[in-house]
Structures are given as structure tokens and as C-alpha cells.
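FOLDING PROBLEM:
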Amino acid sequence: MPLKKNVKKPETVRAFLSCSIRDRDIKLVLAAKQMLEEEYHFNCVTLGLDVSLPEHKDDAVKRMIAECECLIGIATTRFEAVDVDDRSQNLKLATVYLAQEAGAAHQLDLPLVIFRVGEVELQGVTNRNIYIEMAPNLGPSGRIMVKSQALMSTELRDLHARALERRKQKEKNILWEKVKTLTTWGTAAALAFSAMDHLSRPHCFGTFYYKKLDCKNCAVVASCKAEKVKRSSL
């Protein structure tokens, strides 16, 4: 059999996984995390699951999201509420941190995708995006079950591509800032060198005389000769 050509493995992108890590949700979250990492090349990080940081949770989440390239949310039921104007409407709501973290990602212009479990009502930024409907329980094989496999694959591949594009743009911006900094420092160094050169010149600079011993042994004799020629041509 002919050997298969080496196929380049897609780059892994860092994704902030916004989700509940309560006991009732953890199996679903871990199964989704495994699928995202093994099949769609995301490196998922979640505070309290993969990462433990000393600062306040809000500060830690803000820093983690800023270090990521996209956000993936899993909206499971955290609260059941009643509409105050229509008591017949019972609402299922996700953890408030999902809307908060998605909002932070939106402010940073991070691409995001939301999985919605059951009939959870999505709020804020999470409700503006196409979401992937997901069953509250795992399938017989221990995998997550979604309403549309095709939609999930399309959305996750698009998210991966947008995250990579954002990474490349960020790298370009960092490189440009370095170039500007080096240019600034280079200009400053050139000006400093020029100033030092002027300060080191003797008071007789530009009056070179070939028979004078001091001129023959002077450290700036070459530039002194050039200056003399320049002055004589004015």
C-alpha cells in the first residue's frame, strides 16, 4: 500500500470555555471539552476546572479571556424564574457568568459560539449569535448530542478560522509596535550619536592644515577635511 502523505495538523487555538462546573453539569461539560479539543483543535480553559488563580474570580476571568483567542459557552440551567408580567411563563436561565464572560469576550472582539442546553433562555450578547442546540444528557456512547451535527461542525470550524485570523492580526500588531519602538530608539540613538560627535570635535574643526602636527594626529581628521572642503565651496 502506498504511504499516506503527511497531512499538516491544524493549529490549536486557545478557547475560554464559559460553563457551569457544578456536579449536575460536569459530565456534560467534560464530554464537550473532550470533543472540542480532540476533534476541532481547541485548547479549552476554564477557571476552577483547568486553571486556579489567586486573584478575585472576576479579575482572573478577565485576564484569562484576554489571553484567549475565542470563547465557547455552554448554557445549562442554573435558575428557574417566572416572568413578573406573565406568571404562566417559567424561564430557565444559565449562570450569570455566561452572559458576563461572553460580554467581556465581545468587548475584546473575540469570536464566540454558544451551546444551548434544553430550553435555556440566552441573554445579552449570547442571544445575538447563532447557537448550537444541545441535549441535557449524554448519548449512549458518552458523547454530547446536538440537534444539528452539520451546524455544529460549520460553526466550530468557522470559529477556529476566525480565532486563527485574530491571532495573526494580533501578531502583526505586536510586530508593528516593535518596529515603531525600534525606529524611535534608532532615531534617538542617531541623534545622540550626532550630538556626541559634535561635542567631541575640537574648537578648530574644519580648519585642517596638512603641515600642522596636531592636525595629522587628530582623531577626526577625515571629517575635518570634509568640513573644510564643504565650507570652501559655500
